[in-house]
User: Fold these one by one.
Assistant:
Number 1:
Amino acid sequence: MCDVGQEGAYAEKIAIKADIVARKPASLGHVEAAALAVPGLTALIVIEDTLQLRAGETILIQGGAGGVGSVAIQLAKHIGARVITTASAANHTYVRGLGADEVIDYNAQDFTKAASGCDAALDTVGGDVTQRSFAVLKPGGRAAFIASGSQAPKASRGDVQSLRPNVARDRHHLERLVALFEAGAIRVPVVTRFPISEAAAAHGVSQTCHFRGKLVLVVR
């Protein structure tokens, strides 16, 4: 499996650095590997390295039905944390199936009133959700942000940590992701496939930021 990142292109083959690839499990198809690599790598670094989530802690994951959120929920549950997530009503069954203990409908509920005393938070949404996420943390809590620019946002309170994960691509983290998949700790997010001829339509769906799992362009 491979995290193409900045080397990505609409091509059947590309040259890529050997130190940012890992062997794809035989049980994982190429499309599924593409859907797992990037969000899985991000979720892994956020949950294990940046937030250093521990068993017994409570985490709020904003946008649990998205690619990163889908994997983050599973990783948090594998660690033994209690998981609260936000999702539209149509995705509640999906995120509960991933392991979410509590789901907040962001269209009908104010998550700052529905959740409190969290040890950690992960914001995959951005916008006004960023600053509001600090409100759910208990004193000493920490929040990680992947949708609010290259720097961690300034926290609205002084007793919590604001963190920007360094999602560096390397074989070590990809192999860790493979091991978690092969152990059954995580599964691939729901995949929506688009033929390469419909790339523009796929980008249109992606830009809405309101779709389940991951979009994959199938070259052939």
Number 2:
Amino acid sequence: MRSRSLVIFDAFGTLVTSRRGSKRTFLAGLAQAGLNSSPAMLRELQAASEGLDHSGWSGSRAAYCGWATETLAAVAQTGGDLPVSLAAHVVPALEQCHQAAMMALPGASDCLTELRRAGFTIAVCSNWGWDLASDIATAGLAASIDVFVTSAQAGYRKPHPRIYHHTLERSGFSAHDAVFIGDSLRTDVLGPQRVGIPSVLVAAPATCQTGHEQVASLDEVPGLLLGTRLPARPSNLL
């Protein structure tokens, strides 16, 4: 496994989560836009946005922020009856306009530090607003990360193949030399695998799937990548 020199992490739910007590949340943004601010509604909108190509608005931060603001204004005018085309844009807009401050998840800092010491290049590839690097910096993790790739700047949302290719290009590695680590089966495991990047799912044992390696926490990642952790099942990672 040491021949794989690039480790690509998802951000939210893998390395970071929203800081406790934050009032700047996606649910608050939904409420401000006049939508049902329920977790179920948010999940529906997140699913609608997967794989979205918004490259036409990703030429600059100003253009992207303008698109996000206009999206939420248009949502407010619909009275909650969202057309499918607009629904796909809501979560990207929330990511830019209602992003809570971040805090590191348990084990994230130690995991990144150990991998950097072992010589790995670290990238983060995330469906996120324009300010991924500064948002991750608030969690104290930025110093351990070499490359930041956000859907806002790349123009494509996971699991669109282009965002994974963009991450490889920015990092200077081929798919064969990389591994993707995240908490979503669709966007962090299946998406990377479709472009040839092996993947590791960070998830509870009850969610076990076949066809990929899995760890229960970030604490296990360095041992897996360095070959000191024995895989629990046959893996396509090696």
